[in-house]
Design a protein that fits this description.
Shape: rod-shaped
Number of strands: 40
Helix content: under 10%
């Protein structure tokens, strides 16, 4: 502050000079009060705009620099409101269609990917409907019909269409019917009863559903106890007088009153699993009945009291990870079930006791420097945390164990003649004010050494005149008073 005081000259008397109050600083307003003298106060540089950084330069006055609204996130739109300051609105990525999902990554912006509609099932035709946002993936069942009635058509999720031969299923329902397979009609069962027709006049022939062709002897009994009754292949029955010959299937006897009599041998062995008959030469014959229903889904057996038995095969393998069924031509089928839930955020497994299990994936990478999340389409995403505090006076670091760390910068240029400080926007500043070493003593010469600092050396007021008394005033400097 520069002031002028009352000066008295010996020859002219009192002389008054007006005080000029200025500190040469555009950041203060200077005034003078008659009672107290010069005074100054700081100028307010606030322009009322939250989008500017208000500062003051002692040489030029107030400055208003636009602030930088940037959160370094490509997923936000950065703007500034004069009343509120910086604000960041979430960026809404354009949705192209249902088959192109979009996400936003802070370091990249909008990311588009193709929806994977593959259900890993060979029994469906997979496609994507771009217009169906509710359920875009379409899975149309495959048509496995080969138009061959002699095959069993089905589809395996892992292999696709399969066509199994069903010729083995074309089993005759009885002994009087044949069976074969026609590619258009499937199993055909023609009647073959006429194969039992015989030219033997000694037998009546027909076909029995259970045992096939049956040949029953013609009854040539003439009811004469004294004759032997015979039958000729070509002519039929004829009768001769009794001789002593008997076959193995009859017991014969004769008495005087009734003549020769014959009783048939009883060949019934009481076993329902045999077909009992008698051979004229060998006697009783017991042929085993074949109990076969031509199905691999039953266990075939025979009970001596009730006859043929067909017990259903148990195909349950007690495993919840298989679908159990039985096909007569193939037997038990235990086909593994499909547990994929098409979610990259789960591990899909199957437990034989409880079935499909979908365990959430752990996306934590153990670092506090990333934001961990999981996307059902792409799986784990570990995005780098933005530690920028928009302060040029700190070093922004990140440690996996503790997260963001802000270390204050040390602004020291090792110069004793500067004022070291830090501006949050521009960083370290080193300013040398003109009045740094001013000791407000007009009797010293003020200077600064970068290593030592301020130096204040007393000036020499000697004018080398013996007619004056020389002295120095701290406020006004050298004076020379006449003797």
């Amino acid at each position: 502050m520069v002031t002028l005081a009352l000066i008295t000259f010996a020859y002219f008397g009192c002389y008054y000079i007006s005080t000029y109050c200025t500190d040469y600083n555009w950041c203060t307003k200077d005034s003078c009060d008659p009672a107290t003298g010069c005074a100054s106060y700081t100028v307010s540089c606030d322009d009322g705009d939250a989008c500017t950084y208000d500062d003051c330069d002692i040489y030029t006055g107030c400055t208003h620099s636009p602030i930088q609204c940037n959160d370094w996130n490509f997923c936000t739109t950065d703007t500034c409101d004069p009343e509120k300051g910086c604000y960041f609105e979430d960026l809404e990525c354009e949705v192209k269609d249902a088959c192109t999902p979009v996400t936003c990554a802070p370091l990249e912006g909008c990311c588009y990917s193709t929806l994977d509609c593959d259900d890993d099932n060979e029994c469906t035709i997979d496609s994507c409907d771009p217009s169906d946002f509710y359920d875009p993936c379409k899975h149309v069942p495959v048509d496995c019909d080969d138009h061959d009635a002699c095959t069993f058509d089905y589809c395996s999720p892992s292999s696709g269409c399969l066509h199994n031969d069903i010729y083995a299923q074309c089993v005759p329902p009885d002994q009087c019917t044949d069976a074969y397979c026609d590619k258009e009609k499937g199993c055909v069962y023609p009647d073959i009863s006429d194969r039992c027709n015989d030219e033997d006049h000694c037998f009546d022939s027909w076909c029995d559903d259970l045992i096939g062709c049956v040949y029953q002897k013609v009854d040539c009994d003439d009811h004469n106890a004294c004759t032997d009754d015979y039958c000729d292949y070509y002519t039929g029955c004829y009768h001769t007088e009794i001789n002593d010959y008997t076959d193995a299937c009859t017991d014969q006897h004769c008495d005087e009153e009734t003549g020769i009599s014959y009783s048939a041998v009883d060949c019934n062995d009481g076993d329902e699993c045999t077909y009992d008959w008698c051979d004229a030469y060998n006697g009783c014959v017991h042929d085993l009945i074949i109990c076969d229903d031509k199905s691999l889904c039953t266990e075939d057996g025979c009970n001596s009291y009730t006859g043929c038995t067909f017990v259903k095969v148990e195909c349950d393998d007690s495993n919840e990870c298989t679908r159990d069924s039985c096909i007569p031509a193939l037997g038990c089928q235990n086909i593994p079930i499909y547990c994929d839930d098409h979610n990259a955020c789960t591990d899909d497994t199957c437990n034989p006791i409880c079935g499909c299990v979908h365990t959430p994936v752990n996306c934590d990478d153990g670092s506090l420097c990333t934001n961990d999340r999981c996307c059902p389409v792409n799986g784990c995403i570990n995005e780098i945390v933005n530690c920028c505090d928009l302060n040029a006076c700190t070093d922004d670091l990140c440690y996996p164990e503790s997260g963001c760390n802000y270390k204050n910068k040390v602004c020291n240029d090792n110069d004793a003649c500067t004022i070291d400080s830090c501006d949050p926007k521009s960083g370290c500043t080193f300013y040398t004010p003109d009045c740094l070493c001013n000791d407000n003593n007009a009797c010293t010469k003020d200077s600064c050494d970068k290593y030592i600092g301020c130096i204040n050396i007393f000036i020499d007021c000697d004018d080398n005149y013996y007619t004056t008394t020389d002295y120095c005033d701290e406020g006004d400097g050298c004076f020379y008073k006449r003797n």
